[in-house]
Write a structure and sequence with these properties.
four-stranded parallel β-sheet; Rossmann fold; alpha/beta
């Protein structure tokens, strides 16, 4: 029997969206690990960053609460899992607020009642990496490796949304090592002293104040390069996008020469599991991960 989870895909995973390649690589990864993701029917946007900047507290929480209510109806015995760091953070925050604030729970259910829904907020909200670490484990992941990622040095860029305020259980806020451990389980060489692993990439500032975001990204990339990394790996779609797509602009502004691939953990796992470049969604890379492509073709 596969492990089953109620799955919140999030907007950026949809076909043609910015992290649709992430979704494809996750599907491949799950097929190897015997994980079944059951989509929440008629899910909606979690409101992500915009909900905090001007949407108001109750509307923001009600958006995520609607997804929770739909999950409770469709998959009542399953934890909710998200792959997007922003979706996971928004949904988990809503769930915790609902559990610990009776007034918010009452007001949210009043809002949901207009759509014939109600929420209990009685299930865990988990990022996919929590499932990998807690339910699957590094040993089982390592046992699935057919093509070890030998000779590849990788910086695990955790970012900030999967790290604070909640974090991954048992991990340090300053130096979470789950990506390092995963990299090692796949046969690659983790950059263990990567000092920018939890630094913010600027998030949505990439659009509103690009010069500030790009200054942050430059430092993240420079630290990886200074530590000899061949590529970065991340659990966050916004982190992946920001650190990959702005490298040319950063090079132009700062006179740097960055051309370092930034991939998802699921992509790394797929290649190590012996899957094709297409199954691992390497065709979605803007900066090609040639070392992974070469390994996939062997």
């Amino acid at each position: 029997m596969p492990r089953q989870y109620s799955f919140y895909p999030g907007c950026s995973s949809q076909k043609g969206a910015s992290s649709s390649n992430y979704q494809r690589s996750v599907e491949t990864m799950c097929s190897v690990l015997d994980i079944q993701l059951n989509d929440i029917p008629d899910w909606n946007c979690c409101s992500a960053s915009i909900g905090y900047s001007g949407g108001g507290e109750l509307p923001r929480i009600a958006l995520s609460a609607r997804n929770l209510a739909l999950s409770e109806q469709a998959h009542p015995d399953q934890d909710v899992v998200a792959t997007c760091a922003a979706c996971w953070l928004a949904t988990r925050e809503a769930n915790e607020r609902l559990q610990h604030d009776a007034q918010i729970m009452t007001e949210t259910n009043q809002a949901l009642a207009e759509a014939g829904l109600s929420v209990k907020a009685n299930k865990k909200i988990r990022h996919m990496v929590e499932v990998l670490v807690e339910d699957i484990g590094y040993a089982e992941i390592s046992s699935k490796v057919k093509k070890p990622l030998e000779g590849i040095k990788i910086a695990g860029y955790v970012g900030c949304q999967t790290n604070r305020p909640f974090g991954i259980a048992g991990e340090s806020f300053e130096n979470p090592v789950y990506l390092d451990n995963l990299i090692a389980a796949l046969g690659a060489d983790p950059v263990k002293n990567y000092e920018k692993k939890v630094s913010c990439c600027g998030g949505a500032l990439a659009f509103s104040e690009p010069e500030k975001s790009q200054a942050l990204i430059k430092d993240i990339l420079q630290a990886a390069v200074d530590n000899g990394a061949n590529m970065l790996v991340t659990p966050c779609p916004v982190c992946q996008m920001n650190t990959e797509v702005y490298q040319d602009q950063i090079n132009q502004t700062y006179g740097t020469n960055f051309k370092i691939p930034v991939v998802y953990y699921s992509t790394l796992m797929d290649i190590a599991f012996g899957k094709s470049a297409k199954e691992a969604a390497l065709d979605g890379q803007i900066i090609k991960a040639k070392q992974l492509e070469d390994l996939a073709s062997k």
